[in-house]
Amino acid sequence: MSTRPLLEVKDIKKHFTVRKGLFGEKGTVKAVDGVSFSVFPQESFAVVGESGCGKTTLGRMILALDKPTAGDVVFEGRSIYGMRSSELRGLRREMQVIFQDPFSSLNPRMTVESIITEPFIIHGVYPDKAERRKRLLQLLEFCGIAQSHLERHPHEFSGGQRQRIGIARALALNPKLIVADEPVSALDVSIQAQILNLLKDLQRELKLTYIFISHDFSVVRHLCNRIAVMYLGRVVELAESETLFNDPQHPYTEALLSAVPIPDPNIEKRRKRILLTGDVPSPLKPPPGCHFHPRCRYAQKPCRRDSPDFIEVKPGHWAACPIQPFRQKPSDAALTALG
Amino acid sequence: MEPVLSVRGLRTYFHLDDSVIRAVDGISYDLYPGKTLAVVGESGSGKSVHALSILRLLPEPPARIVAGEILFNGRDLLALGPQGMGDIRGNRIAMIFQEPMTSLNPVLPVGEQIAEAVMLHQGATREKAWAKAVELLKKVGIPHAEERVQDYPHQFSGGMRQRAMIAIALSCEPDVLIADEPTTALDVTIQAQILELMRDLQKEYRMAIVLITHNIGVVAEMADDVAVMYAGRQIEQASIHSLFKDPKHPYTQGLLSSVPSIYARKERLEAIGGQPPELTREFPGCPFVVRCPVAMDRCRIQDPPHFHLPGGRVSNCWKQESESEQSRHRYSPAQSAAPS
How many angstroms separate the CA of residue B195 from the nearest CA in chain A? Predict the structure, then answer.
């Protein structure tokens, strides 16, 4: 892995002002509240969290689709928010997006061919007809789309095939970075596996870098080498994928991993679950101190008062839990049972 | 022990103007008290339509149950009229759905909706029914139930709404609970809470559960027995352990190996190629044949019947013909009379 990051996210924040009712009190939702990380070339970096944790907002800011309240995103050494619009247009060729819902992200009135080749027209590449055709056919081959489908419209396809079209469109301009926001969560498992394999093959062949936004740990484990776990707008843990699964350092990660059902009845019968009580608190009024403390089984006094620092617990393994270094790992932790 | 619910050769078709959709095209199982049977399948496999058929919640027409029996404590539900079915539905057999927001009435307090079920089925007075509503909300783990009973559904979180749905379903202490993707819309930590709640309540009430889901992890966690559906047909049935240890049908094998797990990282998932067939098309053979890695000529022309295998398992694959105990061939094969 190269030492120079492809993308750096620097203490980025996005706050939304909301009003309760028509004349109600103004409040602030801190959707993303100070997130920093770097993504290296050809990495597959995951942002994982439950609904409302801010992972999608974070993805939109990385793609310069939303302006952050504070902080910066740096792509290949250049701040993307300091760019002029012409520069930004060039940047958009370098980073592309795959959305969750292949039903609403493709224009129903366009043919498959025009969906995939639209980026060529917008960015004025492959002006030569023959070359454009060649590139189009190459994209079809990459993504496993039959040539006979080019004249069809999105509604004629199933979810998995639509996602292939969305991927082909994202690859059209030969980007370096792809932000994939829940790309397989709308798909059935047998189709999901096809798309995950495709994403993996494409990454190897085209030397892509992925930022994978997901709520599904099993999918992330399969595809990603590093993982950031988010809770209520903040990253609470960041580590290499295998490290995170084998040795989670934040109580939220630990509980989250233990809640994921494992497709093996023998393991399920043996394992003890850490059940979190209650729901995720309202992002309008997050708890003081560590946002997770009301649901945390290790919470102590300082957790209610102080926002925990994001500490490098072990080389490359970061966690935002002040009691972590003092915490004794319980023997019944689900993952120790898994070896 | 007698099964509380037996489904025998159920077929539900949708008759449209120019086509017939064979949404459920043969499913048979026995469900025992206190046990959980998972009905697994991908979108369009007919798992939800099968559940709605049991409670007769489908609009007829276009839907029509064209064949089969649904025996509840030995009584054929398909022979019951609307009145008789009304006594069963929500009372002896209750159902919870995937999206609790759309199944709760947004303009009525949650308590009212629980009390309604109690008044309807048990003839309780309003006051008693409300007291019962509070008690049920407590039981399903809603904090401050006395106050929250007055809340409207939008004031509840997704997990709490599903708890409220469970409270309504439990209000008459049903023998059978049909749970249609009960945790699919929920976050994984909330899913864990709801599944735990369902298990606890099942133990307490000795309720039988039909759990409809596409999530193999949830199946592994909850089920005693599993029925696998594909393109409207049940293609395999087995106890949870034998199914995961030794799946017989090529579709089940493909399904299980295509699931990523947090337990073990696989370099490559074994995806099943292709797409499920369209249900409007009539195919003479096995519905899985076009995607099947071990398909034979016979599979294209002849629909495999339920082969009963040792250990009480059933598989609909010609490969299992030699292993089958033909003498125990209780259910009629799929070629039986089914008007199209």
Answer: 10
Residue B339 is predicted with a pLDDT of 43
The residue of chain A nearest to residue B160, with distances taken between CA atoms, is A279
Contacts of A193 in chain B (CB under 8 A): 258-260, 269-272
| Segment A194-210, tens digit of pLDDT | 889 899 999 998 999 99
Measured CA to CA, the distance from residue B122 to residue A236 in angstroms comes to: 50
Residue environment code for A39-52, b if the CB has 16+ CB neighbours within 10 A, otherwise e:
bbbbbbbbbbbbeb
| Residue A159: strand, helix, or coil | helix
**What is chain A's mean pLDDT, rounded?**
86
Rounded to a whole number, what is the distance in Å from the CA of B258 to chain A's nearest CA? 6
Q: Which residues pair with A17 in a beta bridge?
A: A28
pTM: 0.84
Please give the single-letter amino acid code of residue A175.
P
ipTM of the complex: 0.80
A161, A189, A197 member nearest B268 (Cβ): A197
Distance CA B164, CA B209 (A): 17
Cross-chain residue pair B262–A200, CB shorter than 8 Å: no
pLDDT mean over A284-299: 88
Q: What are phi and psi of A311, to 5 degrees?
A: -110, 145
